[in-house]
Amino acid sequence: MTEPAVNDNKQAMAALKQHGEKIVWAIVAVLLAYFAWQFYQKNYAKIDTVAADAYTLIAERNDALMLGEQNPDLDAAAKEALAKEEQSLLADIDKLVAEHGDTVYAWQALMIKARHLSEHGDYAAAIDTVKQAQGIDLDDEGLAAIANVRLAQLLLANGDVDGALNTANTVLPQAFEASRQEVLGDVYVAKNELDNAKAAYESAWKVLSERGENRALLSLKMQALGMDVTPIETAQVVAEPMAVNADDIAALQTAEAQGAQAEEPAQDAGSDTESDTVSQP
């Protein structure tokens, strides 16, 4: 890899590491809205308008919080105000779930709560929250798959590698196969089973290629393991639910460490052998 390419790769990884959590949750928010609408169309007679109104306010406040958090120039007072609003939002989510716990709105609200918890590094609480969402019987494969993939990511971030592996091995609808395979790859990297990781990433990339969907983070993970990545001619922006798993900070740290290792053999005379190990986060 040339020096400019290495520098570009490092910069891309640094940016993804910094903003990965926000990227994935922004996409999750869009997908939640989409699958909730699908659920609504199938179950319109059962809609709880009170829950719907409560969730609409929660979603609007969550959007405002996300916007505020992106402001790099917040002073101490503004940060304190945002923190108080976040706590108020989480309390209102708990209230919605307590009063309308069998609705899709409770499910959506719990996924929002999980995002806030994970962004603060409270992965254990985020895991419990996603499991609570999974306990709502909505009979919808799309929503169940989103929660399953998210749970696997959170388990891995929390250091439960075996739990993440078991969760990621759950059979999901084909529409989620690329996301499932990418999470599997992340788990195998954490286990230092690099051949399995490469196979999983390759499977994910194959599915994305067939759909004409590019995924920058997955490409970086593959390159960090010394894999050849065939460029994908993008056909559409998002063809598969849960298209990005960028929130897995542990995987990003591992990829960054592997990228640094990849430079070292090039400095050794006559050495062009790919490293067989990945530093663990």
From TrEMBL:
<feature type="compositionally biased region" description="Low complexity">
    <location>
        <begin position="255"/>
        <end position="269"/>
    </location>
</feature>
<protein>
    <recommendedName>
        <fullName>Ancillary SecYEG translocon subunit</fullName>
    </recommendedName>
</protein>
<keyword id="KW-1003">Cell membrane</keyword>
<dbReference type="InterPro" id="IPR011990">
    <property type="entry name" value="TPR-like_helical_dom_sf"/>
</dbReference>
<keyword id="KW-1133">Transmembrane helix</keyword>
<dbReference type="InterPro" id="IPR018704">
    <property type="entry name" value="SecYEG/CpoB_TPR"/>
</dbReference>
<dbReference type="Pfam" id="PF09976">
    <property type="entry name" value="TPR_21"/>
</dbReference>
<feature type="compositionally biased region" description="Polar residues">
    <location>
        <begin position="270"/>
        <end position="281"/>
    </location>
</feature>
<dbReference type="InterPro" id="IPR026039">
    <property type="entry name" value="YfgM"/>
</dbReference>
<feature type="domain" description="Ancillary SecYEG translocon subunit/Cell division coordinator CpoB TPR">
    <location>
        <begin position="17"/>
        <end position="226"/>
    </location>
</feature>
<keyword id="KW-0812">Transmembrane</keyword>
<feature type="region of interest" description="Disordered">
    <location>
        <begin position="255"/>
        <end position="281"/>
    </location>
</feature>
<keyword id="KW-0143">Chaperone</keyword>
<dbReference type="GO" id="GO:0005886">
    <property type="term" value="C:plasma membrane"/>
</dbReference>
<comment type="similarity">
    <text>Belongs to the YfgM family.</text>
</comment>
<dbReference type="GO" id="GO:0044877">
    <property type="term" value="F:protein-containing complex binding"/>
</dbReference>
<keyword id="KW-0472">Membrane</keyword>
<feature type="transmembrane region" description="Helical">
    <location>
        <begin position="23"/>
        <end position="40"/>
    </location>
</feature>
